[in-house]
Small ribosomal subunit protein uS17c
Amino acid sequence: MKQVVGMVVSNKMQKSVVVAVDRLFYHKVYDRYVKRTSKFVAHDEHNLCNTGDRVRLDPSRPLSKHKHWVVAEILKKARIYVPPSNSMSDNVNSSSEALAS
């Protein structure tokens, strides 16, 4: 087997991620390229991967029933939305209440 590159779909397990790998192949009957997606369960030792990250997987010995891949490296981190902290909104609410009084 060779290395594959894919997108992390799920990281809800401990030390494991699910990675979706897309591939294109030419379909002779349809006379066009067809996209297929395969999902692989991979080992993430330090829980560094998040949903949306682009990662490279290396094959390994079977680690569990479905886990035969290891995350070799994170190629691109996903942009994750971080809501603003509540302390700022509390200050704004208290100042607006003071102005209303």
Remarks:
- Helices lie at 86-100.
- The two ends are 71 Å apart (CA to CA).
- Residues 86 and 92 are 10 Å apart (CA to CA).
